[in-house]
Specification:
By secondary structure, the protein is α/β, with parallel strands linked by helices. The protein has one domain: NAD(P)-binding Rossmann-like Domain (Rossmann fold, 3-Layer(aba) Sandwich), CATH 3.40.50. The chain is 43% helix and 13% strand. The chain has a six-stranded parallel beta sheet with strand order 2-1-3-4-5-8, sandwiched between helices. It has a two-stranded antiparallel ribbon with strand order 6-7. The two termini are 25 Å apart. The relative contact order is 0.12. It binds NADP nicotinamide-adenine-dinucleotide phosphate. The site of NADP nicotinamide-adenine-dinucleotide phosphate (NAP) has 24 residues, from α1, β4 and α5.
Length: 250
């Protein structure tokens, strides 16, 4: 299967490209670096030729509602038009839990993205995820005002971007399903994150990573964490919790 990935250089997009290849599909990374601008639509027609699905993992850094609406509205319309022209049957988008009810800041753009897809009738899937573990590092990168570092307060039950990437690829490999349930992702993430956390050692090299790389300390929070954790001595109650997490993820 040929799967195109919009936003292929981003925090999530890079992991989606990896997950597409791991699943044995052909990945077509769409990025400005390879001449595809989602805001103008240039280069899209050729890139989508022969694709069975498009996973949209693009994003803007802007927290302005106006700019976010413009970005997600324009990108979604350009992708859908190019998909129609290239007869791509499935558009898969990532949204954020609660974004549809929000009309402020960045979330307003996500709400518009969902609205546009809902209006399509068929041929689309949307996975709503919580903030990624990597989001903390993204906030730090984008939250600088001159010499000041802004650290907004918020409550979240974050998820590893690698888990979301895997789920998006699984969705892209099936029939369009509209809004996909999020519960399975959360249960699976809780398990892999927790098992990764107990086997993790701080790695000072990661602290100096650049903005788009994985957040400090979350480097093992994805799928590979479980195999690493299997080789690690378990604290009391581990196996009971593991069985519970396993039941939840089915
Ligand atoms: N981060 C989170 O915690 C979180 C949680 C839930 C859902 N999401 C959703 O996940 C998606 C990806 O988020 P992210 O945090 O991974 O984003 P990100 O790291 O900021 O990456 C954004 C991507 O979009 C690309 N892009 C931006 N403008 C473009 C343009 N005009 N043409 C082509 N490509 C363009 C960037 O490419 P360049 O290399 O060219 O800049 C980059 O690959 C978003 O829809 C977001 O709402 C994120």
């Amino acid at each position: 299967m040929r799967i195109a990935v919009a936003g292929a250089t981003g925090t999530l997009g890079r992991l989606v490209v990896e997950a597409v290849r791991t699943a044995g599909h052909d990945a077509v990374p769409l990025s400005r670096g390879s001449g595809i601008d989602l805001m103008t639509g240039s280069g899209l027609a050729d890139a989508l030729s022969g694709a069975s699905a498009v996973i949209d993992a693009s994003s803007t850094n802007s927290t302005s509602a106006k700019e976010s609406i413009s970005f997600f509205g324009t990108v979604t319309r350009h992708l859908l038009a190019a998909e129609r022209a290239a007869a791509v049957p499935h558009h898969v988008a990532i949204s954020i839990i609660g974004a549809a009810e929000a009309d402020t800041g960045y979330y307003a753009g996500k709400a518009v993205q969902e609205e546009i897809l809902r209006a399509q009738g068929s041929g689309w899937s949307v996975l709503r995820a919580a903030q990624f573990h990597e989001f903390a590092a993204q906030l730090l990168c984008h939250g600088r005002i001159g010499p000041l570092q802004v650290a907004p307060a918020m409550r979240s039950q974050p998820i590893a971007a690698a888990e979301v990437a895997g789920e998006l690829v699984e969705i892209a490999g099936g029939e369009p399903r509209g809004f996909a349930p999020t519960s399975r992702v959360r249960a699976r993430s809780a398990w892999s994150t927790w098992s990764g956390a107990i086997s993790r050692r701080p790695d000072s090299a990661d602290r100096s990573s650049r903005c788009r790389s994985r957040a400090p300390g979350t480097e093992h929070a994805g799928r590979h964490a479980a195999s690493r954790a299997r080789r690690t001595p378990r604290p009391a109650g581990f196996h009971r919790l593991a069985r519970h997490a396993d039941r939840m993820s089915r």
